[in-house]
Amino acid sequence: xxxxxxxxxxxxxxxxxxxxxxxxxxxxxxxxxxxxxxxxxxxxxxxxxxxxxxxxxxxxxxxxxxxxxxxxxxxxxxxxxxxxxxxxxxxxxxxxxxxxxxxxxxxxxxxxxxxxxxxxxxxxxxxxxxxxxxxxxxxxxxxxxxxxxxxxxxxxxxxxxxxxxxxxxxxxxxxxxxxxxxxxxxxxxxxxxxxxxxxxxxxxxxxxxxxxxxxxxxxxxxxxxxxxxxxxxxxxxxxxxxxxxxxxxxxxxxxxxxxxxxxxxxxxxxxxxxxxxxxxxxxxxxxxxxxxxxxxxxxxxxxxxxxxxxxxxxxxxxxxxxxxxxxxxxxxxxxxxxxxxxxxxxxxxxxxxxxxxxxxxxxxxxxxxxxxxxxxxxxxxxxxxxxxxxxxxxxxxxxxxxxxxxxxxxxxxxxxx
Length: 417
Ligand SMILES: NC(=O)c1ccc[n+]([C@@H]2O[C@H](COP(=O)([O-])OP(=O)(O)OC[C@H]3O[C@@H](n4cnc5c(N)ncnc54)[C@H](O)[C@@H]3O)[C@@H](O)[C@H]2O)c1
Prior knowledge:
Layout: E1 12-16, H1 22-31, E2 35-39, H2 43-50, H3 61-69, E3 73-76, E4 87-90, H4 105-114, E5 122-126, H5 134-146, E6 154-158, E7 177-181, H6 184-197, E8 201-203, H7 207-237, H8 242-249, H9 273-283, H10 289-310, E9 321-325, H11 340-350, E10 354-358, E11 379-382, H12 391-396, E12 401-403, E13 414-416
Parallel strand pairs: 1-2, 1-4, 2-3, 4-5, 5-6, 7-8, 9-10, 9-11, 11-12, 12-13
Antiparallel strand pairs: 6-7
Helix pairs in contact: 4-5, 7-9, 7-10, 9-10, 10-11
Bound molecules: nicotinamide-adenine-dinucleotide.
């Protein structure tokens, strides 16, 4: 296996999925002395990883290449390689299906692929975000039905990943890790594993508590962002500057946490995970009505932003050219998954506008390429404050700008959301 040091099985980790979660975990584990096999379904990604080129912003090529040349890391698309590991973590996507309900197909197929190769005394951990009960009711039954007959002793835990891509402060090492083992021995082993990598590990009494906590964290963000976006629309209609209101409220030293308005919610987590909660609630005969309404408000926000932007020009909407600045779902990353810029563009196009975009970190978006910032437009919308955006040049040309990021409010010609 590419010369990687597998001599001590107790220090070999296999990670299923080498994306935003799996690769940073791999590098953190290498730093902690583990030999890591990154199991990845995409052959092109395996090739890219083994050539020392990192597909995620948080991991530099230098760091990846150093792990490879130290023979501490290699990527593979062969699930059989998990047999060399004492710990296997699953870090595959858990998206929504077309009905906007949990789609566990990737999680289930990853489990099906590795289960026949799990050897005795292996700890299998799910880091993927999902509804409470996923480890116990989905993963373990698959493993039990497909594991080798000689494999009688396996350990299971849920340890939902909390990584925040692009965050310069919080990473795998210093973010406290929730760990919920299926039984006492699983918990003991899972705690030992994460203690070897993370500064702080928090034991939960069951995997379901850890799974539910992760969903709570992201639902907390959805609901608060939706609330501030609704509040922004109320303030704007009454001629009140919402940013001043938020700053004023934030002077309260306790019991308030500022959230800022924006185009909407994006990324793999905040728009998705709360719908695992709403689905789970309905499955249990209940309705998470506040969460469902928050999801609706979030989906309405890009339409509100489109209408606010089009109102900045005297021309009719159908003759306007609109530039969206920053299409990644948040600054500092090129990740466009679930970006609210998509719904914004759709809302502008639906009103007849011609829409183009710029984003220094995104070379291609939904099959379209960026334009140059000198593209003549009637209105520009700062959707995400990517480093390198040149808002001043647009203003110098007299183009009105709607800033949804609260970064350019001091400049003449800029309207804040
Ligand atoms: N991205 C985040 O900010 C973040 C934060 C916390 C938690 N999470 C959760 O972590 C999980 C993974 O998310 P991500 O952002 O890393 O996804 P990602 O798309 O960046 O990476 C997942 C990788 O898994 C690979 N993959 C899929 N099926 C596979 C299989 N059967 N075998 C091997 N590889 C397979 C994909 O090709 C991809 O490279 C999700 O449940 C997500 O909700 C993500």
